[in-house]
Amino acid sequence: MSNSRVLSGIQPTSGSFHLGNYLGAVKQWVELQDSHDAFYCVVDLHALTSAPDPKELRKNTLTSVAQLLALGLDPERCTLFVQSHVVEHNQLAWVMECMTGFGEASRMTQFKDKSVKTGTDRIGVGVFTYPMLMAADILLYQANQVPVGEDQRQHIELTRDLAGRFNHQYGKTFIIPEGFILKEGAKIYDLQDPTSKMSKSAESLSGLIEILDTPAANTKKIKSAVTDTGREITFDAQNKPGISNLLTIFSALSGRSVAEIENEFAGKGYGDFKAAVAEVVVEYLTPVREKTLELLDDPTHLGQILSRGAEKAQAVAGKTVRDVYDRIGLIPRG
Ligand code: TRP
Known about the structure:
The protein contains 13 helices and 5 strands. It is mainly alpha-helical. Strands 1-2-3 form a 3-stranded parallel sheet.
């Protein structure tokens, strides 16, 4: 393990992760455990910005943790924890809010998009301060790299600006983190609309492969995936987005190259190909689903993992907050 530290977070906003979450993010998290000192956080405080039902939030937080473990995060090789268990996140977030300009925060595209949809009068202040809480998540751990999707680039830029501003004003305190924008190749599209990213905000669930869905449900979704005109099974993202997306999924889950799969299916039809994709997906996800359900069946064990994770996280975060408080002139309690 190198000394280089990574930190990333995922919101517990749904009952199941989907294949886009896994191939676009969590798979890289699993790989980074071996090369980096890795911190991974289920960001339940961020999820509050969408006013979840308390029962759902509780369930989704535990399900998120169980899925991360089932997909390969190993508490012996990384620090896995729940954001609200480490109070330092809120403490540093306030300091970050006090250092952010109103105009600067108003220019964040996620806030702008949401306030257009919801109306500026009704949009929550939490949506406005969301990026400062995210900056705190990252800076607390002195992370060198932050593996995220392209949509988080602006948040990473703000985090870097705030860290630089703080260091300039109060002396070097924070490591300036780098975004580690995940590869485009890992991008998975909706099965029904293969030009849009696979996302839980899609209009219908029929284009979404959910990790915890039954094998039968996922097989059905793949067999009814939108395909393209023509009949060749070839990768051509421009002209054949549907088949290309299925090839990406097949290749990522089987570890075989796209070229090899194209060769195997030369001269065969879309029906045969889809059946093979469904088989690979089911073979991959069935043990993950079973492991997740098994973990959820033992809440005491899950609780122990999270308690240990929070302890490890807090040891680092507490040190950062003590240093920050001291530098900005807050006196210790004595
Ligand atoms: N905003 C991120 C997302 O929606 C989630 C997140 C919160 C995060 N805190 C983080 C990601 C810290 C990386 C690092 O995907």
